[in-house]
């Protein structure tokens, strides 16, 4: 599992084309810049509950092998063109 819960980032956070075999956890994280997850491959669940993103959350072409859960978060702009989620989606 990649666990970034509670983290804070002042700048761009990029996992473009990253391959994460296990779940990705970003719960309660705060991002002051752009988050780029374009064409990333997440093998398990993607947790992003209660995240704050003052920039763009770019998830175009992302593939999630499980559920995508991003409830109670705040993002300026979200892009999920051509995204594929094999489980349920909670936004």
Which features would summarize this protein structure in a list?
mainly beta; 0% helix; 91 residues; 15 strands; globular; single chain; 6-stranded parallel β-sheet
What does this structure look like?
It is a single chain. With 91 residues, this protein is mainly β. It is 0% helix and 43% strand. The protein has no helices and 15 strands. The strands form 3 sheets. Strands 2, 3, 6, 7, 10 and 13 form a 6-stranded parallel β-sheet that branches. The protein is globular, with a radius of gyration of 11 Å. The mean pLDDT is 91.
Produce a short descriptive summary:
This protein is mainly β and 91 residues long.
Protein topology:
Layout: E1 2-3, E2 8-9, E3 13-14, E4 19-20, E5 24-25, E6 30-31, E7 35-36, E8 41-42, E9 46-47, E10 52-58, E11 63-64, E12 68-69, E13 74-79, E14 84-85, E15 89-90
Parallel strand pairs: 1-5, 2-6, 3-7, 4-8, 5-9, 6-10, 7-10, 8-11, 9-12, 10-13, 11-14, 12-15
């Amino acid at each position: 599992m990649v666990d970034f819960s509670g983290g804070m980032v002042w700048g761009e956070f990029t996992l473009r084309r990253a391959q994460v075999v296990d779940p990705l956890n970003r719960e309660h994280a705060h991002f002051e810049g752009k988050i780029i997850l374009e064409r990333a491959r997440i093998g398990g669940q993607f947790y992003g509950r209660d995240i704050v993103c003052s920039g763009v959350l770019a998830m175009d072409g992302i593939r999630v092998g499980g559920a995508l859960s991003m409830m109670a978060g705040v993002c300026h702009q979200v892009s999920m063109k051509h995204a594929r989620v094999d489980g349920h989606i909670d936004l």
